[in-house]
Amino acid sequence: MPEPELHRSQVGEPREEREPVLVSACLLGMNCRYDGDSNLDSPLIEQLAAERAVAVPFCPEERGGLSTPRPAAWIERAGAGAVLDGSSSVVTGEGVDVTEAFVNGAQAALTACEENGIRRAFLKERSPSCGVCQTHVNGQLVDGPGVTAECLKRAGIEVRGVEGRRE
Question: I want to staple 164 with a disulfide (CB 3.0 to 4.6 A). Which of 32, 39, 62, 121 is the partner?
Fold first, then answer.
């Protein structure tokens, strides 16, 4: 993971440390969505530049071991908290259980935050991993977080949902 950038006014004299923030990689234009596309969000990139934040791109589904492209998946029965607590699962439309990859990806996101001093995350809304306010349960869009968003929230990381694909 990249370290926060440090700007210097003179050689060896720190002037300003830029805040690292975790960002769903698809929002930064990386083709890691389940269908191999991205959700490039230009206003988010502009906002981060204006805030002088350093984006740390992260795709929990890829980091958890899933390939791109991959079958669409959703949380089964209960919400993301139940997945993290071991009482629910994440499955693909074909019924393949991908819970382990989603939980591993969420834990890897938390580790990336801890290792980089990250306190804020901008995550792709409506994703079963990254959704902050809405995600998919039983194939339906419902209110509630995805697995990674829930994991980060539990650890005190501020999570913000971004719809994506804004110009």
Answer: 39
